[in-house]
Design goal:
Blueprint (H helix, E strand, L loop, with lengths): L1 H7 L9 H10 L11 E5 L3 H9 L8 E4 L7 E4 L1 H4 L9 H7 L4 E3 L3 H16 L5 E5 L2 E5 L4 H4 L2 H16 L4 E5 L2 H9 L6 E4 L5 H5 L8 H9 L3 H6 L5 H5 L3 H8 L3 H8 L16 E11 L2 H21 L2 E2 L2 E8 L4 E7 L7 H18 L3 E9 L2 E2 L13 H12 L9
Parallel strand pairs: 2-4, 7-8
Antiparallel strand pairs: 1-6, 1-7, 2-3, 5-6, 9-13, 10-14, 11-12, 11-13
Helix pairs in contact: 14-15, 16-17
Length: about 425
């Protein structure tokens, strides 16, 4: 193994094939030897707010709330300035404005959030062999046994943080620990400022002790179902060090079947591994109607135009897909989500055009007006070139794409 590593030092290791780095990491394990785990957690604090402030610099230092995209008039995300007024995620917009008169409520740019998240995924895919998206703007990286290849985990994280900040123009904080729990809490301790924070194995308990108990994911989950935090306050269990002092029977009495897990997490033990999962990539478009309507012909034309634009982007990027969805935001603050999959057939203009009446059938049953429509295309993958022996010389779709490429996406809607 050492011979292989000496040879690899002659090359740029960041450009090695990912499969090779995986195999090298497997080879580096030794039987009977405890492997020192090393997990990094990339955190873009308050991701939607950070992106919106990047789009509009006037929002900086103002109380800002991002509206939930599903038409239920609640806040999807709130800035730190808004939180100081007592606002929180999931709060009704009307209550939030009453509580904070200066609140700026903005509509989310979901396609931009997805684009930035995809950039992070592609950036990491070229550098590390295993990473897991917790949600948008938050990623775990398994750096276990990669120090022999890429160097010290702190130096790697600092380099990664600088490169990501340059690429995205967003503040990045990275926490490093021996497991997912510690790395995440280390990142959160930076409180939204950019930087890298490493918690050594010997420092884990001292790091956890002063933290409030609701930073533990299991406590947060239990407190959502019933208000247990007030009960713990009465028992003088406020910090993690109070939990760490409790014995097994006491924990089981307080938390029932979750007692062992609470005891383990309070001591910084988290066996959960980083599971590599490919982030779902999709194309998205939305349209706000000038006047709410339930007119099928108007909604049908809007749907077709948006789907045709997405299919054009799909074709010109050399990709294919087999699933699509339509989202209708209704006047009574509800939303209707319809997703279709065609596993035996790739999406095409003719396929979607033929299925638009089916998308509108469920909407017709609702008998309500629509003020906004959004569409998405899922399950995108790279198209491999094939030779069609029976293709016409003047293919209609190719001709339309050439016109759009030359005169703009909206220069032509459809042809037959």
């Amino acid at each position: 193994m050492q011979k292989y590593l000496k040879l690899l030092n002659l090359f740029d290791l960041h450009k090695l094939p990912i499969e090779l780095t995986r195999n090298l990491r497997i080879l580096s394990y030794r039987k009977g030897k405890e492997v020192k785990r090393s997990i990094c957690y990339i955190n873009i604090s308050n991701f939607p707010i950070a992106v919106e402030r990047n789009i509009n610099r006037k929002l900086i230092d103002c109380p800002v709330g991002v509206r939930c995209p599903y038409g239920n008039e609640t806040l999807m995300s709130v800035s730190d300035q808004a939180k100081s007024y007592g606002l929180y995620k999931g709060m009704k917009v009307s209550y939030a404005k009453r509580q904070c008169p200066g609140l700026l409520v903005i509509n989310p740019h979901l396609n931009i959030y997805t684009k930035i998240n995809n950039q992070i995924g592609m950036f990491l895919n070229d550098r590390v062999s295993r990473f897991e998206f917790e949600r948008k703007g938050k990623v775990y990286i398994d750096y276990t046994e990669l120090e022999k290849l890429y160097g010290n985990v702190i130096d790697f994280s600092k380099s990664l943080q600088i490169k990501l900040e340059e690429a995205l123009n967003l503040k990045i904080s990275i926490g490093i620990g021996e497991n997912k729990l510690i790395s995440k809490l280390a990142s959160k301790s930076l409180r939204g400022s950019s930087g890298v924070f490493h918690v050594n194995k010997s420092q884990v308990q001292n790091f956890l002790n002063p933290l409030p108990i609701n930073v533990l994911p299991i406590i947060k989950k239990l407190s959502q179902k019933k208000n247990i935090l007030e009960s713990f306050a009465d028992l003088q269990i406020l910090k993690i060090e109070d939990l760490a002092r409790l014995e097994g029977p006491q924990l089981e009495l307080l938390f029932g079947r979750f007692g062992k897990e609470v005891g383990r997490l309070s001591k910084g033990i988290d066996p959960e591994t980083v599971i590599f999962q490919k982030e779902k990539i999709y194309l998205y478009d939305e349209f706000n109607l000038e006047v709410p309507t339930n007119n099928e012909h108007i909604i049908s034309r809007v749907l077709w135009k948006m789907f045709e634009n997405l299919l054009y982007r799909l074709r010109t990027s050399g990709n294919i897909a087999d699933s699509y969805g339509a989202f209708f935001y209704t006047k009574n603050n509800g939303h209707l989500n319809i997703v279709k999959t065609h596993p035996k057939e790739f999406l095409s203009s003719s396929l979607i055009r033929a299925n638009i009446p089916n998308l509108l059938r469920l909407l017709k049953k609702k008998r309500t007006s629509v003020y906004k429509v959004s569409v998405e295309i899922y399950n995108i993958e790279k198209a491999y070139p094939q030779l069609n022996l029976f293709a016409k010389k003047n293919d209609l779709v190719t001709s339309i794409d050439h016109i759009k490429l030359r005169y703009g996406e909206n220069s032509i809607h459809w042809g037959k």
